[in-house]
Specification:
Layout: E1 2-3, E2 6-7, E3 10-11, E4 23-27, H1 34-48, E5 52-58, H2 78-113, E6 119-125, H3 128-134, E7 139-145, H4 162-168, E8 173-176, E9 186-190, H5 194-205, E10 213-219, H6 224-239, E11 243-249, H7 253-263, E12 268-272, H8 278-281, H9 286-294, E13 299-302
Parallel strand pairs: 3-6, 4-5, 4-7, 5-6, 7-8, 9-10, 9-12, 10-11, 12-13
Antiparallel strand pairs: 1-2, 8-13
Helix pairs in contact: 1-2, 3-4, 5-6
């Protein structure tokens, strides 16, 4: 489906054409966060001058592509029932794909209205993490909603696939809450690790952060060594014209980061994930859930 200003590619499974290189991938589903994912993708696309791929995955456990009845042959009168169940699975998968296509088209229209002209749609069967891993070498940034499909106003909970995606991918991952506000400032949780120095490189070189105040915040004791690390990290940012603010705060990582972010009205938090430092250990297992459940602003996760 194309028009004079837009190319839209719909792909139904992984055997089809690969998406556009260096794209912003926006993962949508039936959750309340999907509009925010779309708005975030439009903003990132325009800042990066990059195409957007809207990505929807039909999970095999809910929408089996082809029911497997092997091992059930020879069950006599039960075969008819199994055949009917298999047909129901096929119909559910077909309806799931049709619903996904409608969601993709609605999302595409939302991005069109925000001026995105290089736009693609892609739908696949499988797990979200594996589907994204298959196209990771074409991804510049992937955006996911914070809250899952079954979240309600009275019961907000983190999407069940987020931690698996974070563990699987090595590209920057943006996790967004249910409403979008264009970021005006950014904070990097700094711990001196190689992963976080990748974050320094990202902040200094990416157009997405251009013109924003950048806060480098270290959690721990206030020592000369830590200030030396912060100033070493400040240099490449300052050399690229960033307005850099440095801080060292003692306390629990989650509490310190959220308090500093609220105190300075910071819109975007960048963190490294996994490893042995206090901050990166913070995003493992139940602690990942605790962090994501307490954030009210987008998180950029680096591996």
């Amino acid at each position: 489906m194309t028009d004079n200003n837009m190319s839209v590619q719909t792909t139904n499974d992984k055997g089809d054409a690969m998406p556009t290189p260096q794209q912003v991938v926006a993962c949508i589903d039936g959750s309340r966060a999907s509009p925010s994912v779309c708005d975030s993708a439009a903003w990132a696309s325009q800042r990066l001058q990059a195409p957007v791929t809207l990505f929807h995955v039909l999970d095999h456990s809910r929408y089996p592509k082809e029911p497997d009845l092997s091992g059930n042959i020879g069950l006599g009168s039960r075969e008819h029932l199994l055949t009917e169940l298999a047909e129901l699975d096929r119909r559910r998968a077909k309806l799931g794909m049709e619903q996904g296509n409608l969601m993709l088209e609605e999302a595409a229209e939302r991005l069109r209205q925000q001026g995105v002209t290089d736009l693609h749609k892609r739908q696949r069967h499988g797990s979200l993490a594996e589907s994204l891993r298959d196209i990771e070498d074409t991804i510049r940034l992937v955006i996911l909603g914070l809250h899952g499909e079954t979240s309600t106003d009275g019961d907000l909970h983190v999407g069940s696939q987020l931690e698996t995606v974070i563990r699987t991918l090595h590209c920057p991952i943006v996790i967004v809450p249910d409403s979008f506000k264009a970021p005006r400032s950014v904070m990097l949780a700094f711990d001196g690790s190689p992963t976080v120095f990748k974050g320094i490189e990202l902040l200094s070189s990416s157009p997405i952060f251009r013109g924003m105040p950048v806060h480098l915040v270290m959690v721990g004791a206030d020592t000369p060594d830590r200030w030396a690390q912060l100033r070493a990290a400040e240099k490449p940012l300052a050399d690229n014209g960033c307005d850099v603010r440095l801080a060292i705060r003692e306390g629990k990582v989650r509490d310190v980061l959220h308090a500093y972010q609220q105190e300075h009205d910071i819109d975007l938090l960048v963190m490294g994930a996994y490893g042995h430092s206090r901050i990166r250990r913070f995003l493992v297992g139940s602690t990942t859930t605790a962090m994501l459940e307490t954030t009210r602003t987008p998180l950029v996760i680096l591996r």
